Amino acid sequence: MASVSKKTLLKIDGIDVSYGSINALKNVSMSVDEGSIVALIGANGAGKSTLLKAIVGQEPLVSGSIEYDGEVLYSVSGSSNGFGGGGRCHGVPTYDVVKKGIALVPEGRRVFADLTVEENLDMGAFMLKDEALVKRKKEEMFDFFPILGERRRQKSRSLSGGEQQMLAVARALMVSPRLLLLDEPGLGLAPLIVHEIFSKLRHINREDKVTVFVVEQNARLALKSSDDGYVMENGSIVLHDKASALLENEKVRAAYLGE
């Protein structure tokens, strides 16, 4: 039986991103298939967060292009000097990226500390004009993260780190994204909480058909939870394979799995 080819939802083609004279991303190419979970691992400072910011338009490209669902989100044409100049950049505003179905859960959670849990979810749904839909989505989030339902009227600053991370994910899910980007969802959290969050991500992927692209320091858990994986070093992709194969890769095991 012939295998069914998967649709590419996100395609990144030869992008460079620079901070002044520092090349943060160097000729990065990768793709994320629709319906998959893809992990990006690498050391601190490798450029992983910069890549996520580039996908949502928070970091301008020096060269290359980013496509989503067959549409060009950002591209640079013409010559470039490699340090942020030259070439013409085409791009869409970040709020339009959200409208197209991409949501980012940033590093450090960044919930609105002085707003309640429920008000944070309202902020995540700011583009939705249907009040009944917003109410239904909030109840879905409270069902999915019961602890948030219990804390719905509490200020977000009173939540634990794990609860704040759940709130950050729930806030991103309020707009029913097709592609969920997560930057270090397990950062600073107890292992049990990190496992719970990744269990939720697998559920979102399997049951709600949300494609997930996750950057995570816990390389073992990220790869065990994913279909495909990429390894980034010094702003470049140095390895790409099935996640299960990367778990058995000697270089990955030595550098990122502590073996």
Molecular structure report:
The protein has 259 residues and is of the alpha/beta class. Helices cover 35% and strands 29% of the residues. The protein is globular and about 45 Å long. The protein has helices at residues 48-55, 94-99, 117-124, 131-144, 146-150, 161-173, 191-207, 219-224, 243-248, 250-256; strands spanning 8-19, 22-33, 37-42, 63-68, 71-77, 88-91, 102-105, 179-183, 211-215, 228-233, 236-242. It is built from 10 helices and 11 strands.
CATH architectural designation: 3-Layer(aba) Sandwich
Overall 3D shape = globular
Largest sheet: 6 strands, mixed
Q: Give the CATH level 1 class.
A: Alpha Beta
Give the N-terminus to C-terminus distance in angstroms: 39 Å
Task: Provide the CATH superfamily.
Answer: P-loop containing nucleotide triphosphate hydrolases
Descriptors:
single chain, alpha/beta, Rossmann fold, 6-stranded mixed β-sheet, 5-stranded antiparallel β-sheet, 10 helices, 35% helix
What's the quick description here?
This protein has one domain (8-256): P-loop containing nucleotide triphosphate hydrolases (Rossmann fold).
Topology (elements, then pairings):
Elements (H helix, E strand, L loop, with lengths): L7 E12 L2 E12 L3 E6 L5 H8 L7 E6 L2 E7 L10 E4 L2 H6 L2 E4 L11 H8 L6 H14 L1 H5 L10 H13 L5 E5 L7 H17 L3 E5 L3 H6 L3 E6 L2 E7 H6 L1 H7 L3
Parallel strand pairs: 3-9, 3-10, 7-8, 8-9
Antiparallel strand pairs: 1-2, 1-4, 4-5, 5-6, 10-11
Helix pairs in contact: 3-6
